[in-house]
Fold each of these.
Amino acid sequence: MNKRYQVFVSSTFTDLAAERMEVIKALLELDCIPCGMEYFPAASEDTWHYISDLIKQCDYYIVIVAGRYGSLTPEGISFTQKEYECAINNGVPAIAFLCAEPEKLPVKNVDTDPERKQKLEKFVALLKKHLCKEWHNADELGAVVSRSVTQLIKRTPRTGWVPASAVRSVEDANEILELNKKIKELESKLKHYDGVSVDDISSLCDGDDLFELGYTYDICEKTGKYGTRETIKTNNCKGKLSWNKLFSVIAPKITPFEAETAVKTALNKLLEIEFSETVNSGLTLEKGKFIAGFKMTSFSFDTIKVQLQALGLVIVNKEMLEEKNDQERWRERSKEVIRWRLTDKGRNRMYSILALRKSSGLSKKAGITKSEQNFI
């Protein structure tokens, strides 16, 4: 986008009128907006507050110095020096253009008063401590300013001025940049945090480590020809499963997310597959009776939920859903649902456990038993 930079031009006035015109022409050719004391030729303390505010609003500052020090302020320094110090103190990029041969200047354009000459010498010494260039005549000064300001803009880019019609697009672009910056910051944080934070995750049970869980099963008998049954007795048992096995059953069910009730159903089905044969072998059942209704204890289920979150494999959230009921004439009511979903780490773990390897069949899936193949 095309920008125009506002440049304050400072100098003594009557002796450098021609030089100022060359500088202003050079700035206009660079699409800059020149401003300065030619609009306030009668320098006074009354106009200083306005001038200082103007300098602060400018993008760049130029001072031209030849053989005169200029009108003095109540502090005993020239307004030209005061303007320069204002620019420097307020962080406005400044550049000084010094006459290379002040001894060749007309007498009328040179200070003859010893005190003013001394002040001018000190001011020139101050300018030489910062960025400055030399010039010999007005024509050369215009060219020197053009090259120098171009380099100054490249080295020290500033806000500048834009057309009013482009302001909205500029604001939108800046807002997009800020939002992209925030997105990158959040993505960076997510790389280091995905799920519940644990100081030392290596100390947690994981992978092929076995977890002893509690569960119940029912001894039932059929009560009718349509497969209805009646529970005769409920027994408590314990069994051991690896964390990879438990996770491999849960993970596909919660991709991308699933209600907690579905997770419980999947785990209860796994219990039936894993332990029904063992339970049957240890029982002598009367004719017509059978085992069913495998169910994990609440304590074991909660332990699994906490462990998988601590390992950073899953995230569990509560959500409020709007439910509509025909009998209530479509009145809306809120219902709290607990949902499970995989983290990026959990998704990678699922791929590593369940994905097929080359030249392998289902029986070669990493960490999966035949009973789990039947479950899947």
Amino acid sequence: MLLALAFAVPWWACALTLFLLVFPLAAVAQVLGPLARTLWKIVLPFAIPILLIQGFFWGEGQVLFTLGPLSFYRAGLIFAAASIARIAMLGGCFLLLSMTTRVDMLMRALVERGLPSQALYLVVTTLQLVPRFQAQAHRIQDAQRTRGLETEGTLWRRAQALVPLIGPLLLASLMDVEERALALEARGFSRRGPRSSLVTLHDSAGQRWLRRFLWTLAVALILFRLFAWVTR
């Protein structure tokens, strides 16, 4: 529903929704600090190029200021703000899901709804990809520090420290893929037919009605956006 809201409402409401919904939910789940720090690192590399490109190369409308031969346009700023807000919404929703949802319960819920095993593996692997890469990179960095490699200091020194990190990280990732494949086969991943599970989901009537309401609201927002786009 949050993703539908991010793309169905005007640009300013995307950022407002991020602060009014995603951050309070993260605070209730006690992951506000990690979510905000991670989201900042994800959004900033996209925000700066989008702001510069859209602002200076929009080509028409009100000029806010000039920088040499370049002019910064108000319409470009509005479009850049909308794009950055949607990226923040996408990243915030993904991080909130990955930080608050147990993977085993998510897998069980998707299995009960008939999702194929291959698609289920893609979903779960995507959720675990960034945390596993970060943990692996931290372990490799710690090992490199014990061998005398300088990984802190100036920006150039940190960039140089990335070179000896890439090779071990790629090799460790390939080994991790092989280990996961063996573990999946040992657990009967390719087996057909019904399966038992140690995880039991307790789905109350209130949760079911809330999901139906959110699905209805999301569809209504999408239809509203399509109607506004067709009739403008």
Amino acid sequence: MSQAEPWTVGRLLQWTTDYLKQHGSDTPRLDAEVLLSAAIGCPRIGLYTTFGDEPTEAARKQFRELVKRRAEGMAVAYLVGQREFYSLPFRVTPDVLIPRPETEFLVVRLLDLIKEREGGAPVLVADVGTGSGIIGVCAAKHGNCRVSAIDVSKEALDVAKGNAEALGVADRVEFVKSDLLAGVPEDVRFDFIASNPPYISTSEMAEVAAGVRNFEPKLALEAGSHGTAVIERLIPQVAERLKPGGTLLMEISPMIDERVRQLLEQDGRFEVRATIKDLAGHPRVVEARRVQA
């Protein structure tokens, strides 16, 4: 195409869609729209009313840099610094995992359980490995609860704290730097403990998408040779910190569902319930009730 032809919004989107498709993007058009709207500083839907407009040189320069990094494999969420989860905007950085739709199954179940307790004092929820804070913040936003958002990473806690403040729930969320529940005061007991722990095995890490493997925090992904190294440490801690009758909700890989259920049963302090399946029918959220002492 002739360089005399102006780089309008429409032309930029078409060229970039083709370019990102050639570089392996599964959603090239969506990626192009999100990146261009970020560079221009307008809502994505606004692009559709400005197809014939020509963005400024500064905006095009920023857009080119974003597209280049996307072609290298960096996720759009990291490039624009945000990902929507449970209809809420969450800030994300490479210090935290990008929120996945699968985690919404855990949040929905947690909120249902909290709702069953309506009418009393706020229940106590622990979000172990909070990352960007999606589980704890959603619980505080939509449920009658107080949340302890726990993570071993100070950087992740900073992101989660910013999200809690931006979404108006900072007064209901406490942030705790801790390796799982080890740093939580021993006398604290929770009604619910929710976690999206690392659950990818070392061998599986070599097979995950390059964008995940190269850019997302390994600490939040990999969990030993079987994918259960962190869960094996977490289960006995949960048993000590859940109130009798309290519930553990834990996101898992479908491949470790049977092993995780075995670990809970072997502990002897849990009633293991049916694993919640995702939209593809895969086991996704393990639920276990702490039996009466």
Amino acid sequence: MATKKKTTSAAASKKARPEFDTMKLHGLNEAVKLVKDSARANFDETVEIAVALGVDPRHSDQIVRGTCPLPHGTGKSIRICAVVSDAKMDEAKKAGADIVGNQELVDNIVAGKQALDFDRIVATPDMMVVLAKAAKLLGPKGLMPNPKLGTVTPDVAGAIKEAKAGSIEFRAEKAGIVHAGVGKVSFDEKHIAENIKTVIDALNKAKPSGAKGTYMKKMTISSSMGPGVKVDLGSVAA
């Protein structure tokens, strides 16, 4: 019995190995095809990119952060919490916000009475003083609104609609790596590639003044459960 289990386990392990050279750089279109072909999960996996940048986010002049509206969306339903003034409540609701409130909502968040079951907070500028009391709770989860991300704005409806349409937030982590979901494996290959090009373009535009040497070093794409495929960055710009 033990031998049979070992053989079965070895067979499963062999099947899980990628059927391509993991060390080779692939053109973007080829890489996208490999990612789609390698997806084996019984759900619609997210296509993810990891881009290594030549920055050190510990320095204020090397921070890379922003938002990027994907031309073909993310394939994910985004829940929006709008913290707005009374005058903007109806506007936020009509734009599609899932949770709308002001002082009382923030108090409930701080007290643990409001679950953080949303992906993004959009706020009007006048509500940031109120939201400050929840900063220690929201900040570590990446939920604190920020003017640079377009989530603190008088144009509440525009920010909500953009997020619902498939706008993503990106930020370079400690090692200078940006992770982002760029669609689902069920998407057309062309649409995934176009979403990736849009993110790369946004990263280039967000290049900080303190970045020295090679800014964009390498990129890998994969599905949620699949192997990583190395991408030739030259093919992304082409």
